[in-house]
Amino acid sequence: RPANSEVASVQRPQWDNKAQYILTCVGFCIGLGNVWRFPYLCQSHGGGAFMIPYLILLLLEGMPLLLLEFAIGQRLRKGSVGVWRAISPYLTGIGVGSMLVSFFVGLYYNTLIAWILWYLLNSFQDPLPWTQCPFNENKTEFVPECQQSSTVDYFFYRVTLNSSASIADSGGIHWPIVVCLLAAWTVVAICCIRGISTSGKAVYITAILPYIVLAIFLIRGLTLKGALSGIEFLFTPDVNELVKPTTWLDAGAQVFYAFGLAWGGLISFSSYNPVHNNCVQDAVILSVVTGLTSIYAAMVTYSIIGFRATEKYDFCISENILTLLNTFDLPESSITTNNYDAALKRLNSSNPDIVLGLDIHTCDMQKLLSEGTGLAFIVFTEAITKMPGSPIWSVLFFIMLLCLGLSTLFGNIEGVVVPLKDLHVFPKKWPHEALTGLTCIVSFIICLLFAQQSGLYWVTFFDNFAGSVPLLTIGLFEMIAVVYIYGIDRFNKDIEFMVGRKPCIFWQITWRLISPLIVLFILVFYLVTQVQQTLTYLVWDPDSVSSSCLDALTLEKMQLINENPLIIQVCVPGGVSSSVICGVPLMDQRCDFSFGRSPQRGRPHVRFM
Predict the structure, then answer these.
(1) CA distance 489 to 481
(2) Cβ pair 305, 221 in contact under 8 A
(3) Beta strand 605-608 pairing with 535-538
(4) Higher-scoring residue by pLDDT: 167, 95
(5) What processes does the entry annotate via GO biological process terms (predicted)?
(6) Position 352 pLDDT exceeds 90
(7) For the CA atoms of 579, 468, 93, 426, what is the dihedral angle to 10 degrees?
């Protein structure tokens, strides 16, 4: 371990000011996952009930590991590889693991940014292109595929991605996405070309603008009909969820994901601080900001979801009223939204056979609210189309997503470039600009995998597995390395040297015992549940009804399960194997037909057995 004077004398880039450092860390942590994953998990686990384990684990799991990464990076003045190699050469693998996770996550993250750019460019139209189905080539009718599904689904799956029917069917390159990918990686390269000297200035926009846009959306959302219903649904707790292990598992994983722990970016950022910077205060500030932002973003999301659900509910009631009026030849004002339930009950009592034969839809407000947040490109865009001045709101929305994605990607690139320098993979004379440019070029080439027509399915796999088990494993080994190899007493003295006082008893207990046990429990429980589950992914296949490998009984089941479009579960060719990017051994898997509901929009999904 270097002496104090040696550590302090290591020449590193410096932040222009403390605000720049905090904004960079906030931008890195507050990404797309906080805006979309947290609201979805709240919906999945009983609304406000999920916030209880989330806030508890944020305190006992997130804050201690966050301070650990801040302190070790600031003290040793190195990136994720250099820090762990300085402690022990045998720990170099922790840094390499963080670098690889940052690299893999950065690949699919920038693919999402490419999709955001595509939607942003298409938002400068009135009406928005996903508000109506296009005509066929003869201009005689709408495209059948769009009519079978919905306009927002069709625009996302067919127009934006031109998705194939299986992950095994690459379908070739979809060039509009390639162009957007090139633009996305170019923007990232320009912002990160000189490290924090350029990305540190970009965060003044990418970290602050999302909060402004979220505030605008919240104000607008609260003025929409049904917004309060959505927020009420979010904060109505289902206490039964608190006794379910999966609730605590998801809360723990979300804390890891929300803070960007074990990616290496936070270690690199803190290494640019002055040695005597108050890293304890920084960890507390960032923890509070991250937790409050997650709740804040959830309120914004569910104000819009409440409006969307109310619009669907009102439309459902209106359709049913029109059916009843036409069937029973009633005056137009005899059935209204206010007396609909009583009128339906009266007609059902007097004419049960007629009512039974009608196409009366079940209009359930709670079911519409609990459909989940789903994909930003589907659910939120659908809600925006129903808002007055929809193009303006669409532009604001996708600018916000663009800023959220870019600010997180700055940390991912830092988590790759700095370890590459520490590993001396390339000659020392290579400047930072060359390594950043090379990283972005290689990443763009690999991202062409996601620009195929099967790219959505690969993005799904990367999203599900690249940032789950690896992060938990790396985080666990980070705590073991600092507490039991580097030495907790030595670590305490380092913090005392930097901050001026020894860490309090809270940090001691969490570092030594509570945090490692929590992460270990989450990791083991996650692996056990994953082994018991089958690997699934959603597939878009509007021609599924013509598939020759389905018998009549299977087709009948499909018609009962599917909503739109018609989708089957596609068998993977015998020679294809699926590998999970999480250190789990490669598994050859056979495919069997099995029907189930997808957690998103009730869609069927492909299942590997």
Answers:
(1) 13
(2) no
(3) antiparallel
(4) 95
(5) sodium ion transmembrane transport
(6) no
(7) 80
Q: What is the pLDDT of residue 7?
A: 45
Per residue in 484-532, pLDDT tens? Answer: 999 999 999 999 999 999 999 999 999 999 999 999 998 888 888 877 7
pLDDT given for residue 537 in this prediction: 67
Which residue(s) pair with 537 in the sheet?
606
β-partners of residue 535 are 608
Known binding-site positions for Na(+): 27, 34, 404
Among 188-197, 251-260, 559-568, 582-591, where is mean pLDDT lowest?
Answer: 582-591
- Binding residue ranges: 27, 34, 404
For residue 373 the two structure tokens come to 């947040």
Residue 558 has pLDDT above 70, yes or no: no
Q: Which of 6-10, 283-287, 352-356, 368-372 has the lowest mean pLDDT?
A: 6-10
DSSP state of 582: S
Q: 4-310+373-532 sits in which CATH class?
A: mainly alpha
CA 296 to chain centre: 16
Comma-separated ranges of CATH 1.10.4160 domains in the chain: 4-310+373-532
Q: Which residue, among 273, 254, 272, 264, has the nearest Cα to 411 in the 3D structure?
A: 264
> If DSSP codes are grouped into helix, strand and coil, which group holds residue 221?
helix
Cross-strand bridge partners of residue 587: 578
The distance from CA 14 to its chain's CA centroid, rounded to whole angstroms, is: 31
Positive/negative CA dihedral, 40, 460, 190, 82: positive
Alpha helices in 149-208 (DSSP H): 151-154, 175-192, 196-206
What average pLDDT score do residues 77-92 get?
Answer: 93
Q: How far apart are CA 471 and CA 198, in angstroms?
A: 28
Q: Which whole-number Å values give the CA distances from 539 to 176, 432, 587, in the listed order?
A: 21, 41, 21
pLDDT in tens, 282-293: 999 999 999 999
The DSSP call for residue 537 is: E
Tokens of 266: 């936070």
Q: Which helix (H) or strand (E) holds 421?
A: helix 390-423
Tokens standing for residue 337: 């939204």
The pLDDT confidence band at residue 371, using thresholds 50, 70 and 90, is low
Residue 528: both structure tokens together:
């056990």
The count of other CB atoms within 10 Å of the CB of residue 523 is: 20
Residue 397's pLDDT is 92
